[in-house]
Amino acid sequence: MTSTEQHTLRDPAWSGRVGAVLLALLLLWPMGVLTEFKPWELLSAQSLAPTLRFLADFLPPKLEGDFLALVLRETWRTVAMATTGLVLAWVLAVPISLMSVRVLSVSSLSGRMGLLPAVIRQLARWLLIGLRSVPELIWALVFVRVVGLGPTAGVLAIALTYAGMLGKVYADILESGDVHTTQALLRNGSGRLQAFLYALLPQNGAELTSYTVYRWECAIRSSAVLGFVGAGGLGQQMDASLKMFNGGEVATMLLVFFALVALADRASAFLRRGLA
Q1: Is 59 among the domain residues?
Q2: Are 107 and 177 in the same domain?
Q3: Is there a single domain that holds both residue 140 and residue 72?
Q4: Angle at 151 between CA 269 and CA 66, to 5 degrees
Q5: Tens of pLDDT along 203-214?
Q6: Do residue 205 and residue 248 come from a single domain?
Q7: pLDDT for 57-91, tens place per residue?
Q8: Do 12 and 131 lie in a common domain?
Q9: Which residues fall within 8 angstroms of residue 97, CB to CB, at 6 or more apart?
Q10: For range 192-202, the mean pLDDT
Q11: How many Cβ atoms are within 10 Å of 147's Cβ, its own excluded?
Q12: Rounded to whole angstroms, what are the CA distances from 228 to 17, 28, 72, 225, 255?
């Protein structure tokens, strides 16, 4: 191969990519030092022995009838908590996200959005920032004090945090697509809701649905974490099993979470095929 052919086959952007990788490593190194990130300690004798003993306690999973009935009941409670919280989040997120989308503003058709719509849009975005800036665990601790222990605190915590997440991503998805059809409808006298239903929603329905199902999957995982602070469900049962060093029980509940996430993944694929 001649030098000219070698020059032709060389990636013209390789120097930029190498420079970007070196810059990233240069920036990440002090962060790793600050967080005391030392993964090699996991392979030391002092860490490896207790880790293997801990993992050995997971086998075999506990499959007794009474315990499986308890897991089934708490699984249903966990799914109900996640689903109800996500539905409430969706109810909050949809109107707020529509208010924050520039493409649905009639005044923006002339180029610059009017003062009042711009203020409303900015307030809606600030509200979404405020909702998602507080982790659901903090909301759960607050609501446990207000409504007491139980799934209600978990539902409200998921609803508020996920409303901010859904609303933000919904707005980004709607604004990143093709806006010509939407603008054409608005220019010809269509209402904002009609423009959304007949232009933006059909174009972005699959992506919106996929993200919503993904957030439902995340809500199931969050409900497990919220159970550790008294919100009920599988998380609370897992916390009790961990405190009693019942590794078999924990392994069974982890397998249930694996099945729930796999189910959510299949549901997302099915809905995307239906909307394609």
Answers
A1: no
A2: yes
A3: yes
A4: 85
A5: 888 888 888 888
A6: yes
A7: 788 888 888 888 888 888 888 888 889 999 999 99
A8: no
A9: 124, 128, 166, 167, 168, 170, 171, 174
A10: 80
A11: 13
A12: 43, 32, 18, 6, 18
Output helix, strand, coil percentages for the chain, rounded to the nearest 5: 85, 0, 15
pLDDT at residue 112 is higher than 90 = no
Structure-token pair, residue 181: 């059809």
- Which residues have CB under 8 Å from 11's CB, separation 6+? 17
Q: Which tokens sit at 249? A: 């029980």
Structure tokens at 251: 């392994």
Shared domain check, 148 and 203: yes
- Residue 238: other Cβ atoms inside 10 A: 24
Contact 57, 245 (CB under 8 A): yes
Q: 7: domain range? A: 3-49
Strands (E), the chain: none
Evaluate if residue 8 carries a pLDDT over 80: no
- The terminus-to-terminus CA distance of the chain in angstroms comes to 47
Better-predicted residue by pLDDT, 229 or 128: 128
Taking 80 as the threshold, does the pLDDT of residue 269 lie above it? Answer: no
Both 72 and 29 in one domain: the answer is: no
pLDDT tens digits for range 139-173 = 888 888 888 877 888 889 999 999 999 999 998 88
Residue 275 has pLDDT above 70, yes or no: no
Average model confidence (pLDDT) across the chain: 81
Structure tokens at 62: 């506990």
Does 33 share its domain with 73? no
